[in-house]
Amino acid sequence: METANRVLTLDVIAALRYWPGVIWGGQKNPPDPVDMTVLPPFFNEVLQDLPWWNRDWKVDRVQPGLPAETGDHLSDPAVRFTEVSIPGTVASGNGKSLPFVAKIGFTGDQLIGFQAKIGDVVIGPAVAPAGQSEPHPFGRILTGLLDLRGIPVRDMARAAGLSMSTIHMLRRGHNPNL
Question: Do 28 and 47 meet the contact criterion of CB atoms below 8 Å apart?
Answer without folding.
Answer: no
